[in-house]
Amino acid sequence: MVQWQLSADPVDYPAAVAAMDARVAAIREGRAPELVWLLEHPPLYTAGTSARPADLKHPGRFPVFESGRGGQFTYHGPGQRIAYVLLDLRRRGQDVRGHVCRLEDWASRALADFGVTAGRRAGRIGLWVDRGPDSQGGGREDKIAAIGVRVRHWIAFHGIAINVTPDLEHFAGIVPCGIADPRYGVTSLARLGVAAALADLDAALRRHFDAVFATAGALGVPSSAS
Questions:
Q1: pLDDT tens-digit readout, 98-125
Q2: What is the b/e burial string over 20-57, where b = at least 16 CB atoms within 10 angstroms of the residue's CB?
Q3: CATH code of residue 156
Q4: Across the chain, where does the E strand assignment appear?
Q5: Total tally of structural domains belonging to the chain
Q6: pLDDT value at 220 more than 50
Q7: Sign of the CA dihedral 64, 48, 85, 189?
Q8: Which of 86, 162, 177, 205 is catalytic?
Q9: Tens digit of pLDDT for each residue in 127-138?
Q10: Which residues are CB-contacts of 81 (< 8 A; sequence separation ≥ 6)?
């Protein structure tokens, strides 16, 4: 049984990490169920295990937190739905890449409910939206969802951040995910003209969770959201 938790107020990043650490230990020891935690953070940057100092363009603008998740710098803030997905991969095939692909598929299906086609790209983690040709005749793509995962004792945590109505100018303080190529930017549902609230996206995420993750249940036993 997968538990769902929604935090109505922004959660400080260190508090969220501490809560995830405690929950990971409880899941590993069989004291708590798996968890999908939906929340927002106040404006901040996180540095993944591959973050390059030069990619922090404006030090001091927002707090910066070291993160044990994979990836480089990313921004979190109001209007961005964070879905921390804490799952026991011992029961789900012990396949980290498969878990990342399921996160991508899950978010892609949810975004499709709003008429947004978002997909993965070779060599670039996360979900991307085709924005058509640029002024030089090439293609432009914008990132709408970032993914960063950490695994401890085969318990996966951290997860995915989907841009609903964040202030996209805040991304200018970093090189998002280390991608400096001007063909690749950042977007949101609001920037794409979709009038959706966080609650609307939450409902879509819940709608599609079982279809994506139940196939990774342990020993043929599907997990279910509650």
A1: 999 999 999 999 999 999 999 988 777 7
A2: beebbeebeeeeeebbbbbbbbebbbbbbeebeeebbe
A3: 3.30.930.10
A4: 2-6, 34-39, 44-47, 64-66, 73-76, 80-88, 119-121, 124-133, 139-152, 155-163, 184-186
A5: 1
A6: no
A7: positive
A8: 177
A9: 999 987 766 656
A10: 38, 40, 161, 162, 164, 198, 201, 202, 205
Helix, strand, coil percentages (3-state) for the chain, rounded to 5, are 30, 35, 35
The answer as to whether 224 is a domain residue is: no
The reply to whether 177 belongs to the active site is: yes
Residue 15, classified by CB atoms within 10 Å of its CB into exposed (0-12), middle (13-18) or buried (19+), is exposed
Task: Give percent of the chain above pLDDT 90.
Answer: 70
Tokens at residue 70, please? 């994979």
- Evaluated on CA atoms 121, 178, 157, 109, the torsion sign reads negative
| Host H or E run for residue 147 | strand 139-152
Domain range spanning residue 77? 2-216
Q: Which two three-digit tokens encode residue 109? A: 């299906």
Extract the tokens encoding 93.
Answer: 């095939």
Q: Does residue 127 sit within a domain? A: yes
Question: Is residue 223 assigned to a domain?
Answer: no
In a domain, 221, yes or no: no
Residues 39, 26: Cα–Cα separation, whole Å: 20
Which tokens is 129 given?
A: 């939206």
Please give the structure tokens belonging to residue 43. 């404006």
